[in-house]
Amino acid sequence: MKVLLSIKPEFVAKIFSEEKKYEYRKTIFKKEVDKVVIYSTMPEGRIVGEFSIEAILNGEPDSIWRKTNHFSGITHSFYKKYFNRRDKAYAIKIGEIERYSEPIDPKAFDFPFTPPQSFFYVDDNYRPISQKNEQFEPLLF
Fold first, then answer.
1. What DSSP letter does each residue of 44-71 carry, written as one string?
2. Which InterPro entries match (predicted)?
3. Range 87-98 average pLDDT
4. How many Cβ atoms sit within 10 Å of the Cβ of residue 119?
């Protein structure tokens, strides 16, 4: 299964350059997911690629930072602010990356597209799959 994640353009660039090998989240998927589709938020507003999930680490934020900081693509202060007052952190380890040769403009879809605040499950045509009873956190990066 795939999810579509909203990621800021500056972090998308770091994923493609392989400077950023972990994507951090406050909450994680409830279903088994093997691929992440990357939606680069505004001003780009395009679906630009995808990556496979090598692993998902979870634990106390300081412990996750110690394990992942060399390939975080973010500063420690940004990380601390993001996980402020949280007792659990998730780090998605980025596997194989595919950058689309032509970014996809979701406005061209034959269905309404609203960028996710954090993520949503999608089919192979980027159509959202029902998210009933899912809990999502606002996206910070």
1. T-EEEEEEEEEEEEEE-HHHHHHHHGGG
2. PUA-like_sf (IPR015947)
3. 98
4. 25
* Annotation: CATH topology of 2-122: 2.30.130
Backbone phi and psi for residue 47, each to the nearest 5 degrees, phi listed first = -90, 120
- Please determine, for residue 139, whether its predicted confidence score (pLDDT) is greater than 70: no
Q: Is 55 left (phi over 0), alpha (psi -120 to 50) or beta?
A: beta
Cα distances (Å, whole numbers) of residue 91 to 43, 96, 121: 25, 16, 18
Count CA atoms within 13 Å of residue 80 on its CB side.
4
| Adjacent-strand bridge partners of 76 | none
Which residues does 98 contact at the CB level (< 8 Å), separation at least 6? 49, 50, 51
Give the residue extent of every domain in the chain. Answer: 2-122
Assigned token pair, 70: 């060399």
> What's the CA gap between 116 and 47, in Å, rounded?
12
